[in-house]
From TrEMBL:
The keyword Transcription regulation applies. This is TetR/AcrR family transcriptional regulator. Coiled coil: none annotated. Residues 51-70 bind DNA.
C-alpha cells in the first residue's frame, strides 16, 4: 500500500480524544491499543472477520499509521499471534530432544485449540495461498521467527550429541511440517501416543552416524 504524501491526520481515541500522529516512530500506548483492538476482533470474528479498517476504528488509530507499522492484515495478525504465543509457550529444555519435542507439540496444539489467535492461524495459512502479501508475511516474517524460536531446541540437541549438526535444519522443517499438516486437516486434538511417536522418530532420524566398526 502506498503511503500518503501528507502527514497522517490526528488519530481519534476511543472517547473522541485526538492523538497527534507519530508517523514511523511507534508510541507504546498507541501500539498497545492497536494490538489489543486486533486481539479483541480476532476473539469476536476470527481471521475471516479480521480487518485493518475495523482495528483502526476500535483502536482510534489512523489507518495510514497502522499500515506504516504493519503493511498488511497478515503482518498485524502475526504480531498478535507472536505476542500471545510467547506468553503461552516457552521452548522446553528437558535434556532430551524427543521429550522436548513432545512437550512443545502438546503446548502448541493446546494453544491452537484454546486461544483466539491460535485458532485463527489456520486462516493465515489459507490466505497465503491466494494473497502475495500474506504469503510474503508468512514466509519472510512468521517462518524465520518460528525457526529461531524452535532452533534452540535442536541446537541444544546438537550440543548434547543427540543429532548431527548438518541434519538439524532439515529435521526442524520436518517437525514444522508435521504440525501444519495436522492443523490444516483438523487433527490437533491431544494424542500423546502420536505425539510421542513423532518426537522419537525425528530424534532417531537425526542420530549422528557411527564410525565404521563402532557398535553400541
Amino acid at each position: 500500500m502506498s503511503e500518503p504524501r501528507n502527514p497522517d491526520p490526528p488519530d481519534a481515541g476511543p472517547a473522541g480524544h485526538r492523538r497527534a500522529s507519530i508517523g514511523a516512530r511507534r508510541h507504546p500506548a498507541a501500539e498497545m491499543a492497536i494490538l489489543e483492538a486486533a486481539r479483541a476482533l480476532l476473539t469476536e470474528k476470527g481471521y475471516a472477520g479480521f480487518s485493518i479498517d475495523e482495528v483502526a476504528r476500535r483502536a482510534g488509530a489512523g489507518k495510514p499509521t497502522i499500515y506504516r507499522w504493519w503493511p498488511s492484515k497478515a503482518d498485524l495478525f502475526i504480531a498478535v499471534y507472536a505476542a500471545d504465543k510467547a506468553a503461552a509457550i516457552q521452548a522446553p529444555d528437558t535434556g532430551d530432544l524427543a521429550d522436548d519435542l513432545a512437550a512443545y507439540t502438546t503446548a502448541l496444539w493446546r494453544f491452537w485449540r484454546e486461544t483466539p489467535s491460535g485458532a485463527a492461524f489456520k486462516g493465515l495459512l489459507a490466505e497465503a495461498q491466494a494473497s502475495d502479501p500474506a504469503l510474503t508475511a508468512l514466509r519472510e516474517k512468521f517462518l524465520p521467527v518460528r525457526l529461531s524460536d524452535l532452533g534452540c531446541v535442536f541446537t541444544r540437541a546438537v550440543e548434547r550429541g543427540e543429532i548431527a549438526a548438518e541434519d538439524a535444519p532439515a529435521l526442524l522443517r520436518l517437525y514444522i511440517g508435521f504440525h501444519w499438516v495436522h492443523l490444516l486437516t483438523g487433527r490437533i486434538d491431544e494424542d500423546p501416543a502420536l505425539i510421542d511417536q513423532m518426537a522419537r522418530l525425528i530424534a532417531r532420524a537425526g542420530r549422528p552416524a557411527r564410525p565404521a566398526g563402532q557398535h553400541d
